[in-house]
Design goal:
132 residues; globular; 7-stranded mixed beta sheet; alpha/beta
Length: 132
């Protein structure tokens, strides 16, 4: 899924790139990237894009939706928390480069997961090699 949000005149506001993947109880929606132009932030654009993603994930019968966010990105972390996402696990050195950094794997259960088993947090961090 790739969706763009724009003004009525066609001016770019933001986009989301996501997919549905996995198998069995790991069938889920995954956000690869969500970005909003600075002048359109704090106006509900992210919420609109995430709502559409979650709607598609639900139609595709996903157990949960997930995304990764830098541990240092408090603004994004707080936004996703407000959207109902919780930390499922910490992934050590998920982001690599000049400054390696851990990520939070954040999840939100979909209606299919009535018992919310998919979002029970892991008690310990994992490495990127251990991701399924």
């Amino acid at each position: 899924m790739f969706q763009v949000n724009e003004t009525i005149s066609g001016r770019f506001k933001g986009y989301i790139m996501a997919k549905v993947e996995g198998n069995k109880e790991n069938w889920h929606g995954h956000v690869t990237c969500l970005s909003v132009a600075p002048e359109f932030r704090r106006q509900g654009v992210s919420r609109l894009l995430m709502n559409e993603f979650e709607k598609i994930s639900e139609i595709k019968n996903s157990w949960f939706c997930d995304l990764f966010v830098r541990v240092s990105n408090k603004i994004a972390f707080d936004m996703y928390t407000k959207f109902g996402y919780t930390v499922y696990r910490r992934v050590l050195d998920y982001y690599t480069g000049e400054n390696d950094e851990d990520a939070f794997d954040m999840r939100k259960a979909m209606p299919r997961d009535v018992e919310k088993k998919s979002i029970i947090p892991l008690p310990h961090p994992v490495t990127a090699d251990e991701l399924d």
